[in-house]
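Chapter summary example.
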Amino acid sequence: MKALNIIIILLFSINVLTNSVKANTQDSEQVLLDQYTYEFLENNDTQIRLTYDLIRFHKETLKETRNYKALTPTELDYFFNIIKKLIKNDRERSYLELKARVLSDLNLGSGFFEDSQKRTFTLIWAATEMIGHNIFKYVFSPIYKSGKLRRMILSDTNDVNLRKRKVTQFIKKYHNKKRKKRLKNFLKKFERKKDQISSILDDDIDKYLFEIITSIEKKIKIRQESRFRTGTAMLRYYLQSIGDHLTIGAGDVFSDLSGGFGNAVGKVKWRNGRLKRNDDAIGLIKNTLQPLDILVEKTPFILTDYFIPGHFGHIALYLGTETQLKEAGLWMHPSIITHHKEISEGKTILEATRDGVEISTIEKFLNVDEVAILRASKSYAFLLGINKTEVYNRAMAQIGKDYDFNFDVETSDEIVCSELIYQTYYFIDWELEKTLGRWTISPDNIVKELFKEDPKMEMVLYLKGYLRKKFKRLSLKALRRNIEL
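The structure predicted for these 485 residues follows.
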């Protein structure tokens, strides 16, 4: 009898323990369900905003600039950033899809109909997959079809850390045969049981997920996609990849050759500039300069000057002295603070040279024969004042970047001297030229702003040096003649 009691007690204990485990499992699954539901809603809210913004940007801007116009600096920043955010949002959705799939019933069996938690997990999985395919097909693919935009995305030539590896992972995910087959099989079963599923949904989240799945399926018709179409899309992707690889590779070769040539001929110099150590000229220039003035110069004694199109060969930005920056209330500007020491030591010129973007002294810069100072015109100075903080942000953000031997304004990880001005004065519609399939800007292009109908810049000083430390002030008319307008 005693043994029987022990057995009964053991069986009862096991039953209690089993029920407890089941209860704990259900509780833990409910916690996961609540977490995944929150993640889905948050991710979906983000993707709706990103999708709307990217579709609008594509319609209003990218289509217009595809072939005959370059993206402006702000458009370029926006483009790279929003593609990066879109891919990041997709990666987060992929993690959610993977987690939800583990707890789902993709066969839509009894578990789906009898277990409300499993049903919601399954609907979350399906909705994340459908949303991803919809974005890829109708938001990303129209942009990716443009050879120019595609190669911009794949070239690793941006400064927002959008990388080719992440882009290709994103694309391959939606060409993955196994993934598509799993989703198509689910959708076929879902279509057959759609009315039955709809009749048992009493939770608002489930109804919302159900609506997402059905509405997107009507739009993109994954269920009806043939193997031939899937294979053709993958083949097209690989052929595009080969072409893009060759094009980008050719650009890299050009950049290497251009860099080697530029570094070689840049060392060929047969004298110093006429304004070097000319105290009177340097004094006049220092007394004239104001923060964010542009300096453009000519050095006909350096071989590279003969390979740069136009009259002027180099251009730079004047940051201002410590005193000037304090008077302007900019000395404690976040982007200036980290360079207090250099500026206090007299380094006030921001320029892009073959060694990269750096701050140097006015004395070093003025080893030239000619120099002109450009300043925001009086009628336009108010706009510079409004945007001064952002102008400094953009200017100082260029420090440390390498020289752009591709001379392409639609890259932002490397820049040349005139691209430094292009990036800094981002709100001015500078004149560009298309050379070897890329949009470029030269110092002369910057100077030509002086002669537009409504110029945003004005010339405040133009000096030319001569032998025996003589120099002469030249007129705006002489400058116009020199740049052959």
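To summarize the output: The mean pLDDT is 86.
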